[in-house]
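2024-03-11 09:14:02 INFO worker-7 job=invfold-0412 stage=load source=structure_tokens
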């Protein structure tokens, strides 16, 4: 199948793959303003179309491999950096499985992750990285899986 028959989603995945290959081979945002401008414009267009990339990844390593460019800054990080949760998992207690899915992850440089978690809030983070709005909005508005009701003992 040629790209002229791609759906919008298939074309977005193909373009993302091309940017990843460029970065893996040394053509990064830091050494090419043209690539950075193309990448930023492309991410803004994805945002307008509300397309979220790599949303089918099931495990963290798979997501980091599929997303080797920091989703905020555009810096190539390979499998480095860190995985940020858009909606925090919370500490202790019962973990909610839906928070550990690619729909709630961002692969970021450690600096961008700190900016998301410890910065001036989500609104400021989105002012700096507006191309992430669709993904962050989707994660923030997602409805968690309903909690299973505990089994009640039968009374005879």
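2024-03-11 09:14:09 INFO worker-7 stage=emit residues=156
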């Amino acid at each position: 199948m040629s790209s002229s028959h791609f759906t919008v989603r298939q074309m977005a995945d193909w373009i993302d793959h091309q940017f990843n290959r460029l970065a893996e081979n040394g053509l990064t945002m830091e050494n090419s303003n043209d690539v950075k401008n193309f990448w930023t414009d492309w991410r803004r267009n994805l945002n307008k179309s509300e397309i979220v990339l790599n949303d089918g990844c099931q495990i963290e390593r798979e997501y980091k491999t599929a997303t080797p460019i920091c989703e905020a800054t555009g810096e190539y990080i390979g499998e480095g950096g860190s995985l940020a949760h858009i909606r925090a998992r919370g500490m202790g207690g019962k973990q909610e499985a839906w928070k550990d899915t690619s729909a709630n992850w961002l692969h970021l440089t450690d600096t961008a992750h700190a900016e998301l978690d410890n910065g001036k809030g989500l609104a400021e983070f989105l002012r700096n990285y507006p191309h992430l709005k669709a993904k962050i909005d989707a994660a923030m508005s997602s409805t968690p899986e309903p909690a299973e009701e505990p089994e009640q003992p039968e009374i005879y």
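2024-03-11 09:14:09 INFO worker-7 stage=report msg="The first helix runs from residue 8 to 24."
2024-03-11 09:14:10 INFO worker-7 job finished
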